[in-house]
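Weekly structure sync, notes
Attendees: PL (lead), two postdocs, one rotation student
Agenda item 3: pending single-chain targets
PL asked that the sequence for the first pending target be pasted directly into the notes so everyone works from the same version. It is reproduced below exactly as submitted, 197 residues in total.
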Amino acid sequence: MLRGTFFLILLALFFWSSCSESKVHHSELSKSVSDFLKQLKQKELPIVIKGCKSESLDVTDYSTDKFVWLDTADARLGMYPYCTFSSNGDYVSVIYLGLAACTLPYLITYTPDGKKIDEGFLGIGGCGAGPGFECEEYMTIRQDYSVYTSDTIISADVDSLGHNIKSSEKHYVVYKEGKILPNGKVQVSEEITKNLR
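Predicted structure, written out during the meeting:
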C-alpha cells in the first residue's frame, strides 16, 4: 500500500512538473551567461522605458575592463545591456539600449548556454530635436509578455521666431505591437500610424 501511494505521488509530481511553465533558473545557465547576467539589473514586468527621458534610466557603467560581455559584437554596435527579466519559457531575455538622443530598446533572447535565439528592435526611432517637432519615445513589455512601443509626435510649420503655427500642427502616433513567445522568438508588427487629432 505504501509503495503504491509513493508511486502515485511520484507520478503526480512528474505530470505537474512537465505541465508547469518552463523557466530558466540561474543554476541551469552556462558560466559565461551567468557571469554576464550577474552584472545586469533584474527587472520585474511590466517594464517601461521612456527613451527620450534616458536620464531616468539607471544604466550600468560599461567602461570598466571588468565588465564581461556575452557577445562583444554588441559593444561594437553601440548597444549596451540594460536589464534582464524572468522569461515565459526556456530562454534568457536581455534588453539592450542603443544610446543616442533618445534611448532605443532592443531585445535579444538567448538559450541558457548563450546562443542567440532571436532579436527584435523595440523602438520606433523617429524622435529627434528641431523646431516644430516634439516627440515622446515609449516602450513597455507587459506581464503577459506582450510588447507595445510608440513615438507620439507633434509636428508643425514654424514662424520666423521658431514658434509652432498652431493651424499647421499634426498630432499622431507611430506604434508597433508584439509578443515574446515561450520559445524565445520575438514577434513585432510593422509600424502603424494613427492620427490623434
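Discussion points:
- The helical segments are 2-19, 31-38, 72-76.
- The chain has one domain: 23-195.
Action: rotation student to compare against the earlier draft before next sync.
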